[in-house]
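Late entry, written up from scratch paper. The run itself happened at the end of the previous shift, but nothing got recorded in the book at the time, so transcribing now.
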Amino acid sequence: MLLYSKGLSTRDIQAVLKDIYGVELSPSTISRLTDRIMPEIRAWLSRPLEPVYALVFIDSFVVAIERQS
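Output as recorded:
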C-alpha cells in the first residue's frame, strides 16, 4: 500500500515485489488487492486520535573491545 500511496503504478509495484520478495503478481491482482483494502485504510486514517500516546525511546551503542591475554 505504501508503494501505491507514493504514486507507483501497479506495474512498478509488480517489479518491486519480484525484485525484493521473488513474488510474481499481475498488475490486475495488485489493483484488486489495493481496491479491497483501501476502505480499511481510509477508516484508519480518519479514526479519532487519543489525547496522549505513550512513547518509549531506546538508544544504544556497541563497543567492540579486544582483550589481550
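The chain has a mean pLDDT of 89.
(Scratch paper discarded after transcription.)
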